[in-house]
Please model this.
Amino acid sequence: MRKFTSFFALVLLVCFAICVAAAKTSKPPIVIGAIFSITGDNAPLGVPERDTAVMLAKQLNAKGGIKGRPVKLEIYDDGGKPEQAVQACNKLLARKDVVAIIGPTLTGPSLAIAGMCNRAKMPLISCAASVKITQPVLPYVFKTAQTDSLAVERLIDYLKKHKISKVGFINDSNAFGASGREQWLVASKKAGIETIALESFNSGDTDMISQLTKIRSAKPQAIVCWGTNPGPAIVAKNMRALGMKQPLFMSHGVSNPEFIKLAGTAAEGVTFPSGKIIVAEAIPSSDPQKRVLMQYSADFKKTYGKPATHFGGHAWDAFQLVVSALEKVGPDRVKIRKAIEDTKGFVGIGGVFSFSPKDHAGLTKEAFVMVQVRNGKWTLAK
Model:
């Protein structure tokens, strides 16, 4: 009996020692916050962002995390609404263990929380496009989506190449569309391109026939539509219904398979500036992004059974920028901010990023290629 008792005590002692050792070697997770538009009209943008972040976190943790510490994502859905983004941001800011926030998906929610994060000294890496997110520069606010001003520049280069000088412009009245309109009017005027008709629509509108009829009467050489789905798809369909034959150009806000799905045959011929991910196979091997783009495409396809998108790429870049900073400086918000700002030549999905104290967007117009829909597929525009 005494032998059994001694043996039992020994087992307990060994188990206790193992538990103590495990407790000493177990490290708490590093928490990264995320706010995406997972539901609502812009879910086709936010869902691939969430999926990409989840995939990357699993890949990183499978390799041992960051210096032995796993990464944990705290993901919130803002439904595409600024007020919900503010609520989510408040929850993340209240936690001392959150080292950075990636997202939101959209311009409006991003602008709604940018000042909050800056005041709280929380690094924010937005996945939205408006130049207003990073101009003027806020020390703690960065972005990975290609800036609308650069998209406008790239589109204007293409229009001038094809000798298009008179344009009808229509935009979504949301923050993304309004910012694009503002950038367009400034840059197109400098380039000598005349905007002879100017219209807008609300994000929830289901018919733009009235606005397009006014544009048609001005007889432009081409139409430019700036917005995110479903509005641009409706514009494409309404144009064809009106028999308008002008070429239709759009923004990088439609760089998603959902546009082709919604617009159907009306998507044919639509041309727009886009990040390279949707035409990754077509870009030359000499492009520094080629390998990264192909690897991300393969990983996403294997994980989710569907193609990677331009928008998921924004989350890839945001997540990797935070991880790169963490590996360099550890889970210190102030040091993370500085490490991101000091980043140079980071090859991402959206482009090759180089940040500075005066530039928290980090890209040039070379991050864009011109893409055209042909036979229901993305192709490089000529």
Observations:
- The chain has two domains: 30-146+289-367, 149-274.
- Residues 2-25 form the longest helix (24 residues).
- The two ends are 88 Å apart (CA to CA).
